[in-house]
Amino acid sequence: MACVVLLGGCGERNIVRTGPPIPEAKSQTIYVAAQRDFDDPGPSFGGRRPTELSYARITVGIPPSHKTGNVEWPDETPDPSTDFVVTSSRRFPSGEAMRRDLRAHQGQRETVLFIHGYNNTMGQALFRFAQIKEDFGVDAPSVLFSWASAGVPSGYAYDRDSVLYARDDLEATLRGLSRDGEKVFILAHPMGAQLAMETMRQAAIRGDRQLLSRISGVALMSPDIDPQLFRRQARAIGQLPQPFFIFISREDRALDIASLITGRKPRLGGIRDPREVAGLDVHVVDFTALSNGEGLNHSIPVSSASAVGVVRGMIEKAESGVAAFERYLVLPAQP
What we know:
Elements: H1 2-6, E1 26-34, E2 54-62, E3 85-92, H2 95-105, E4 110-115, H3 122-136, E5 142-146, H4 156-177, E6 183-188, H5 190-206, H6 209-213, E7 215-221, H7 227-237, E8 244-248, H8 253-261, E9 283-286, H9 300-303, H10 305-320, E10 328-330
Parallel strand pairs: 1-5, 4-5, 4-6, 6-7, 7-8, 8-9, 9-10
Antiparallel strand pairs: 1-2, 2-3
Helix pairs in contact: 4-5, 5-7
């Protein structure tokens, strides 16, 4: 039980609150496809998983005092000048209605899709994604896929089942976002990485190469996947979307605990040997040296200010196409 309690660090125990927009604050617009009840966005352990997705557009205010890598969580009295707050929201009756609104407001033909991990409520994932968008300067249309995580530390097994339950809905979401040839870039965090891989594997088994061809890239951050299972998934998918990044840390304490829960099986996000992914068309980036000790070192690429700077440089490099990435890159500590 102690392990499960410690693993609660995967999701901050904070509550999303609303507040008025203020002129000096920035804002981030996030579309949401959720296996959630928007009227009850908190923990849902043991609850009945929904049979249909819910859809919304949510605007998050970013305070002028925001520091890179942080989510400035509000308390019971939110202050838009110092806290993340929801400033507006709109629900949609269907995925198609959300898609039309997304394209009308942001006409770009590539979408960033974020898939959160274990022990996350929708609100926690929403604010984390808003922080990622702000810190990385993401201006592409952005969608949060919020699967039915229990949102409690004791829900690890429940969440692993919820990942399998979510595959069809994630596949349908990807198909809708890319229906007219648009591209989708997937960013997935620990158990969300398992969901992303299982969904791509499922599409490959169906023979839907068209859907897979419309995934413009994948970044798995601290993936909570058995490396042997990942290899089988990758082989079933066949040609992986490119670029395909795996962000790891050898000091990810949350994944160390997950390893204990799963029978001392290593997790992909904590591999120590390049041979674990030898022969696969992936790029592994080791962020161990850039850890700041926050959150069990489980979200270093987005929660460490120095790591954010490195990743932004990698994004610019990928967009320019001036040089290829190393297959296994161990980042040095920043001076």
